[in-house]
Amino acid sequence: MGYEVDVLAVGEKSNSGDAMAVRYGDLSGDREAQTVVVIDGGYKDDGAKLVDHIKEHYQTEKVDLVISTHPDQDHINGLTTVIEELEVSELWIHKAWEHNQGIADKFKDGRITDSSIGERLKDSLEAAYSLVELAETKGITVREPFTGEAFDAIKVLGPSLEYYEELIPQFDGMPEAKSAEDARAEVGLFEGLYKAAEKVMKKIFAAWGDDKIDDEDTTSAKNNSSVITQIIVDGKRLLFTGDAGITALDKAADQLDNCFSGAELRFIQIPHHGSKRNVGPSVLNRIIGDPIAEGESRGITAVASAAKEGEPKHPHKAVLNAFTHRGAKALATRGGGICHHSGAQSRAGWTSLNPEPYHYEYEEEA
Questions:
Q1: Helices and strands (DSSP H and E) totals, the chain
Q2: Looking at the 3D structure of the chain, how many domains does it have?
């Protein structure tokens, strides 16, 4: 048994995204002995790159499962090409517009109805709605990936149905919420965007094991709705996080705590292209472990899918440091594809990458 995790390069300039292909099973055997999975498809043009990659390196046009983690354009737009050009058996995607029962009560405007919110979600999440329609037209099985859903060696760790429905009223394009907490979340997001626009840089000095990240979850509700999955192959755990934030990751860690497979973490996708807003010390300690001595390793590969010119945000040096001093080999695509594998033959023209160095000095936006 073996596996290959391919994190394709997405984003020519500063706009990062995710497009991944995974193959596991008897990699030297027939196609029937292997499972092929696509997790997100990047922007529209990335879909064709993903199709070509699977045909060239996996020698197949059949994909067993496509997972759309969440409906942001840098994750979902390329999946249309994947479904149009490859033979896809199953699609996992959330259908927010079907989770509108009783939702009108959560908004201040008394004229809003459950039905109108459902239609608004179809419009605001048009890429997701169109992808579902396309898949159903082609006879592809469509399922919503909530906690516990499984496909072969693949299992969903989050979000739960209950948590997902809590997040929907906070999605972009929703009316003003009744809850003061929701209103504060919206203000916090606006302030974050305003500060980012200023782009004032400051120098940061770091010491080994000193986290320059915190436990405050400031990512969007849509990001926290990301599908978090694990694949266990031959006692090795591969963890895929989409753009999930601290709250979502913490809930997924609860599922990991209750997993008794004994599988050891060997690969983790660094959430949201390495954004500082998505991970904190406490949740990383739960998922990876506490910081360890400099020079030690836990044998874990952590990869951030980041645009060629995505820094200083994607990936943020503080995030790479946090993974590094917990014993992970931190890597970032930065315009080049990365293949993490076990039990697979090396590819011609592909070379090993050195881990990200520990960044004792770096600049970040003030």
A1: 11, 16
A2: 1
